[in-house]
Amino acid sequence: MTSLSSVSGSVMSVYSGDFGNLEVKGKILFAVEYVESLKELHIFVAQCKDLAAADVKKQYSDSYVKTYLLPDKGKRHKKKTSVVKKTLNPVYNEILRYKIEKQNLKTQKLNVSVWHRDPFKLNSFLGEVELDLETWDWDNKQNKQLRWYPLKQKTAPVALEAENRGEMKLALQYVPEPIPGKKLPTTGEVHIWVKECLDLPLLRGNHLNSFVKCTILPDTSRKSRQKTRAVGKTTNPIFNHTMVYDGFRPEDLSEACVELTVWDHYKLTNKFLGGLRIGFGTGKSYGTEVDWMDSTSEEVALWEKMVNSPNSWIEATLPLRMLVIAKIAK
């Protein structure tokens, strides 16, 4: 049992790519031009500077740049550069071309993202830039010049690298009075029953050794973290593991959030597979705006049912997704 003693603490969030936590930093130099004679959109990707280091020990990333014309997420609208290895300041000097009528660009957004290429072929996000082509002035010569853009955190529409990450079958229960009849006021408990995961992605051929971590945000201390045992050799692991967190006052239910993440354990490293964040999804906690209070409608629905049905198990099967993971405090 873990106490929620620091439920009103602060959280520092960094973006979690598929391999550990990567801070989004640095900038990218590129230019955009529509070539009338070819009826093509050209994106000249020159270079990046001061990228985050995917390899922390050696301080480098093996990076490439990828573009999409949103809202189309299909392969037809995906272009990418070659990979430049072992540097935080890669130079590409490549043109990415789209065959498209100029008038059709008015309904498009250009998404330019930078990724670290990993040998396991599940890549880590390093930052992005998004341009609204509806308002882009194609006649402005300055818009055709190379320009530095600061890389930003991932926005919702570009969860494009995240393919199907599988699902988690679980149940939640809120117990407002764990010790019935006690005269002194008591805090409640939240019980989290992780039953199984379904159709998890394979990172290492046919090998998988998965486990689930749980943290109750905004408490990022290690005492807030619990985890299941690892289950190997299956993409449909059955955990059947219950985690209990105490210290919940009724008002904490509106401010806290259950973060469940699934990992593949291999040798000395853990590879991120996907996660859930179950709460009210208000974007705030104890009056402070936070990135992690970002529950989907399905995740919010499960939390609401739990809060409104005390002492009852509420079951759901939810799709796993990418998360901006709250950094665990030491």
From TrEMBL:
SMART domains: C2 (SM00239). The gene is SYTL2. Residues 24-149, 164-293 form the C2 domain. One of its GO terms (biological process) is exocytosis. One of its GO terms (cellular component) is plasma membrane. The keyword DNA-binding does not apply. Pfam families: C2. This is Synaptotagmin-like protein 2. It comes from the Eukaryota. InterPro entries: C2_dom (IPR000008), C2_domain_sf (IPR035892), SYTL1-5_C2B (IPR043567). It is found in: Cell membrane. One of its GO terms (molecular function) is neurexin family protein binding. The keyword Protein biosynthesis does not apply. Keywords: Cell membrane, Exocytosis, Membrane, Repeat.
